[in-house]
Amino acid sequence: MSGLRALLLTAEFAGGSACAWSADEATPTDGKWLMMVVTRSTDTTREADFNRWYDEIDIPDVLQVPGYQRARRGHRVQSADLPPAQGEDGTYVALYDIASHNIDRTIIEMLMASRRMEAVGRSTALLKVTERLYFRQHGAPVESATAPRTGRKTFLFLERVDCCRDAATGERLDDWYDVRHIHDMLRTPGFVRATRYELYRVLMIEPQSAPRYLTVYEASADSAEQIVAARRLTLNALSAQGRLSELFVEHGSALFQQINDVSAR
C-alpha cells in the first residue's frame, strides 16, 4: 500500500472516531480550518539544518497548496507549570490557516503536494511528525480588550481540552468556554488574541487519538516565564472564584515561542 493511500485510510478512520458526531455536523459553513503539525528533528545535532529546510523549503511549498493562507512555527517551551504531554513530544509546531469549502479535497491536495515534494527531493530525513491534525474554526477570533502587544517576543499557547461524552455535555462546555472562559483568559497579562477550534481529522500513518478542542492564544511578552506565570495566576484565581468548569480537563496543552510567521503570496 502506498504511503498516500495509508494516510487516506487513517484519515477516514481517525476522523470518524475522533468524536461521536457525524461528518455533516463537523463541516463548518464558513470554510475556515487549521492544520497543526507537531514535529521534531531526527538528529539533534542538525537542528539548524532542520529549521532551514522547514522555513525555506517546506513552508513555501505548503503555502502553494490552494487554500493554505498562512503558516506560523513555534519552538516548544518546557515548564513544570504546564500539563504533561500525552504520547511522544514534538519540539516544534506549525499552524497553517486554511480557507476551503471542501476540506477533504484540500487534504488530498496537500497529501499529493507532499508526494511531489518527495519525488523531486524537497523532503528531508530529518523530519519526524508526531502529530498531524486538521481542525475546523469554532467561532470568530476574540481580541483582548486590555492587553496590547508590548513584549519583544510572540508566544502561542495551545490550550487543548478533551470533552465530551455526549452532545448535551459538549454544548455545556461550549457555552461556558465561549461566553466566559476565553474572555477570562484574555485578561491574563500578555494574552492578546484567542481562536478556538474543533478536531476534524487525525492524519497519521499510525492511528492515534487527540483532544477534541484546541484554543490558540497569541501572547506577547519578554520571556516564556512571564507567560507561564501569568497564566498560572489567572487559572488559580478563576478556580478560587469558581469560574472554572468541571468539564475543563486539559490534555497536552503546550507553550511555543513563535519563530516564523509567513503569509501566502
CA radius of gyration is 18 Å
Question: What is the strand tally?
Answer: 9
What is the distance, rounded to the nearest whole angstrom, between the alpha carbons of the first and last residues? 36 Å
* Uncertain spans: 8-29
For the biggest β-sheet, the strand order reads 1-3-2-9-6-8-7-4
**Anisotropy-based shape:** globular
| Biggest pleated-sheet summary | 8 strands, antiparallel, barrel
CATH topology: Alpha-Beta Plaits
CATH architectural designation: 2-Layer Sandwich
Helix content: 25-40%
Domain count: the total is 1
The percent range for strand residues is: 25-35%
State the CATH class. Alpha Beta
Oligomer type: single chain
Mean pLDDT over the full residue set: 87
Helix-and-strand structural type: alpha+beta
Task: Kindly describe this structure.
The protein has one domain (3-263): Alpha-Beta Plaits (2-Layer Sandwich), CATH 3.30.70.100. Strands 1-3-2-9-6-8-7-4 form an eight-stranded antiparallel β-barrel. It is α+β, with helices and mostly antiparallel strands. 33% of the residues lie in helices and 31% in strands.
